[in-house]
Amino acid sequence: MTTAETSTADTTETAAGAARTDPGAAPRRERSAVPVQTRSGRPTSFDPDAFGMPTGREVNWKLSDVQRLAPLFVDEATETGEAQAIAYDVAAIEAAGYLVPSKGHDAPVRGEIFVPEDVTAALAWKHGEDALHIRIPEGETVDEPLVVRLVGQGADRHGQAHVVIEAQPGSVATVVLEHTGSAAYAQNVEIIVRDGARLTVVAVHEWEDDAVHAAAHQAVVGARAYLKHVVVSFGGGVVRVNPSMRLAGEGSSGDMLGLAFADAGQHLESQVYMHHEGVATKGDVLYKGALQGKGARTVWIGDVLIGHGATGTDSYEKNQNLVLTDGTRADSIPNLEIETGDIAGAGHASATGRFDDEQLFYLQARGIPEEQARRLVVVGFLMEIVQRIGIPALEERLAADIEAEIARGAGLAPASRAGA
């Protein structure tokens, strides 16, 4: 694997004894003429200045809406008090005893596995001094989803935050991050699934149309542990989520699922990374998108790395996009790196297109009107992701959201063959 740019920093020991990067250390950056092409080769740093201002020419920004994301590149502190960008509702989680104090950058657990990969994540680390830390105690099963409600207080409000979700050994839980309202909001989510734990994390983005949101989700999964990570994006002007999962422990497994429905003028983006590191790990990546209206755009970049020691790995990634009208754009780029020949299986797939005429003909031939037939095809296409979430109340709500999105675009002309 060729690496064009790297950074190093001093390390200290955390309370748990794991190596941790010192946020105050200045990184050493070595450059070459060869651009970074692989996700594993990208530079990392806690220092925002190490990344510079994105121009849209960088490999990790070239498909992003850099112009609208620009407010998140500004090195300024999170607004507080009456001018705060996000109002948090975690009262139920705190009352249940799952919220633990996390003050300052050196708080226990924080930064144990998280290292920023771009300037927005580095700024969120720098200015999100205190973290929201949810911890599931060892061996405990939490039956009801733990819901964090994040409500944007206005498009002119600028905020950053760091969230830690920690599942102790043998625990079982589901955490939902719900985003509504409007703000310019940069967010880091650090997910740690200890040995034998089973965790589901769902991020739902139902922002207003003028919201700008960039999030970096980084997860590590221990031995015989499992993580289901789901990203659902329906609202927001620009929503850019970069989820990564490291299957570090022997026998660890994970599912990375995503659903995006882009309307006119929306830019919904996910840059997904699954790193198989441990022996006999299993991973599945499935993201689906639907687009309607002029200027609607989705971006999906899926990177899978099967490391040298990840023998016996079974991995698959797929992205599918359904184009509902002309004037939309869906970018889909799957990448697969394999560094060992001893694997159970690995593959990837990508498909973007308009309605299947045969499906529509089949439904219409049975007396179903064309408009209803189109609705059934879209619902059936997207519900595969919804039904894998595993939270009945949320699944019902998202199904209604899909119906509302379809109704919103009912008056738009369907995509032509040329537009597909």
From TrEMBL:
SUPFAM superfamilies: Stabilizer of iron transporter SufD (SSF101960)
Signal peptide span: none
Low complexity bias locations: 1-26
Pfam families: SUFBD_core
Annotated stretches, region: Disordered: 1-53
Positions of the SUF system FeS cluster assembly SufBD core domain: 155-381
NCBIfam families given in the database record: sufD (TIGR01981)
Protein family per UniProt: Belongs to the iron-sulfur cluster assembly SufBD family.
Protein name: Fe-S cluster assembly protein SufD
Species per Swiss-Prot/TrEMBL record: Agrococcus versicolor
